[in-house]
Each structure stands twice: as C-alpha cells, then as structure tokens.
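Table S2 (continued). Query chain:
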Amino acid sequence: MKKLIVLLLVSVVTFAAVKPFETKKKVSGNEVVKVEKYKDCIPSFNEVIFTSNNCVMACSIANNPKLMKCIQYCKECIVVCKSSIQLMQLNSSCVKEMCNLCAKMCEICAKECDMKDMKAAKDCSAACLKAAKMCKEIQM
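Corresponding output:
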C-alpha cells in the first residue's frame, strides 16, 4: 500500500511540474508568433508524461522483471518530453534537435509498451505515437 501511495504522489508531482503553455508572458510580438507554433505540442507531451507515469505505476505494481525495459523507456520519455516543453517555452534554438530526440524516444517507448497486455501500456503507446508524429512535424 505504501508503494502505491508513493507512486501516486510521484505521478502527481511529476505531472504538476510542467507548467501549462502560456504565450502571454512573451515580450515581443515576434517571440509570441514563434512560440505559438508549439502550442499543439505541449498538451501532447503532457499526455505522454501522464500516461508514461501511469504505465510506470502499473508495471511497478505488477512486479514483473519482464516489465523493466518498459519502465525504463517510460521514465526516459518523461524526461525528454519535459525537456522539450521547457525548450519550447523558452523558444530555444535547440527545439528541433530536442524534438528529434523526443520523437525517437517516444517511438521506442511506444513499441515496447504496445507489446504489453496492459491498458496503461496501450494508453502510453498511443500517446507516444501521437507525440512522435508532432515532433516530426516540428522538424519540417
């Protein structure tokens, strides 16, 4: 029971750690236009963070050593998606490179999660594929 409570708290803290997308704080009109183009990606990346956390929790509760790779990929996806969001919010010149990494990680995670017979893993896979597609669109 303690493990479940800790996992739920980690999930809530992790999900709350990424601020919602805002463009109103930008100073120049040009910056707003540049950052605005990422507005559809942020919810998609937040969905990956949320579903990956759920997948990690479900796999951890199952306590099956065969799920360790799934847990690892989900954790990596969370890190990459959070970093992508932060770089987008900063209108970083490295967004395309980060999105390339994000797409690659999301595809790896989606493939692994899709092989699992768990709802949380299937949800994670779907969210990862959607985010990977958005990442590839940014690179164009």
